[in-house]
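Hi both,

Apologies for the delay on this - the queue was longer than expected. I finally got the 2-acetamido-2-deoxy-beta-D-glucopyranose-bound model through. Below you'll find the protein sequence and the ligand SMILES exactly as submitted, and right after that the structure tokens for the full complex including the ligand.
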Amino acid sequence: MRLPLLLCAVCSLALAFNLLRAWNATQTRRPALTEYSAHSRAALGVTTPSLRASQRAASPPTIVPPAASPRAAVPETAAATPPPYPETVGASLSNYSGTPHVELWGALVLPGDANLQPDAPRCHQSCVEYEPTRDVLNGSQCNVWVWHPLTQQCWLKHERPAELRAAASALARPGRASVAWTSGVWTGHKPCADCVVPARYYGCITKDICNTSRACGSPAIDGYAHVDPKCVQRSPTAQLYNELLANGSELIGTHELNADYDGLGVHWGIGHTKQRWEDCEQACRQHRPGTGGGPFAALPCNVWTWCSRPTCFEPDAHSHHFGDCWLKFTELPHAPEVNMREPMRSSFMRRHHTQMAAGVPWVSGALLPPGVTMTNGTWGPRAFW
Ligand SMILES: *[C@@H]1O[C@H](CO)[C@@H](O)[C@H](O)[C@H]1NC(C)=O
Ligand SMILES: *[C@@H]1O[C@H](CO)[C@@H](O)[C@H](O)[C@H]1NC(C)=O
Ligand SMILES: *[C@@H]1O[C@H](CO)[C@@H](O)[C@H](O)[C@H]1NC(C)=O
Ligand SMILES: *[C@@H]1O[C@H](CO)[C@@H](O)[C@H](O)[C@H]1NC(C)=O
Ligand SMILES: *[C@@H]1O[C@H](CO)[C@@H](O)[C@H](O)[C@H]1NC(C)=O
Ligand SMILES: *[C@@H]1O[C@H](CO)[C@@H](O)[C@H](O)[C@H]1NC(C)=O
């Protein structure tokens, strides 16, 4: 039986699109203020300290902190004798201004359970040091921080200018004793390095950052929803590879360890196991259009991705296992759209830190016409999922 949907190398269209929508929702939606409860992580599916816990935090330090936060078992007294400030922290403390018993709201840039800080000044400092990235609120600054003395969670947030003015006046008033949080704002500016379009770019990170030299655009830009197999079949790259196959040209293999290149699946990889990456490359070489099934069956194979570990993470709904060999087609295979590569983007690593703990588990490669030089290519949209 042929698999009903042969799609992008490592995800199915519907699932990928839903995933993108979910991602899109968490990244670009601007919910009503009430949804931005300082320590609420509903969108990320993380349990948060209850209000009771935060109220109790204000009471004497005999309270046992919530068991869920392993490093949080620090009684309030510990905050009174924090470790000495490193020099960099000391320097910026001249600008430190935090107000106890205030909990500011804002859109989340970094969750507090991933950012424990021993005291409020160091929470402030982590806001100062936060590097904006395109895939978190489109490169927004950290301009608000909220620190909890019991759990030591330091939540970094972004507020728009009007909200920030309201925050400043909230900070100028005395807080409410029942609120355990300490809050502050930072109005400096940090550049967003990956918001700058690379001087040379092959593909699309977003719809506004797009090199249209890929005749059919960037497949993953909307979770593969727009991809028209006919367009891809007519693309200059597909025509070239069909000619090369027809006249028996020997293609030149290149490969990269710890890398995952994007592409449209011409042969589904789950269960298509090969013992070594070399065998996966060979399978790509031997693949002929029309034999793989699915919407992209008519395309030749020019990139491949092989799973080198017992399990291999992808931000999709599938499980990927050792030996899975995905055969793919991409426009401009000498300049691939890279889903993952070592060192992987730090915001991606933060988002998927559990699954990516051992680094990028994939090996990828391309088959190029003689004389064509392989390049690094550029990050593809999936590097931002
Ligand atoms: C992503 O969000 C934007 C803005 O909210 C919306 O216009 C767009 O349709 C969304 N895309 C998807 C795939 O949901
Ligand atoms: C403190 O604030 C002043 C003025 O706002 C700024 O010039 C200076 O760089 C800041 N110092 C640090 C260490 O952030
Ligand atoms: C994201 O930020 C860039 C500037 O870095 C801006 O040009 C673009 O319009 C922003 N997109 C959204 C959806 O806010
Ligand atoms: C767009 O892609 C072409 C290759 O197809 C490349 O030559 C060109 O430099 C790219 N343009 C930008 C602005 O990255
Ligand atoms: C095969 O086709 C390619 C692409 O059209 C061409 O560059 C190459 O010279 C051809 N090789 C032979 C042996 O005909
Ligand atoms: C390609 O990536 C490597 C490793 O990150 C880097 O050293 C090299 O400068 C890159 N090449 C180009 C042309 O960007």
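Main takeaway for now: The two ends are 32 Å apart (CA to CA).

I'll put the files on the shared drive as well.

H.
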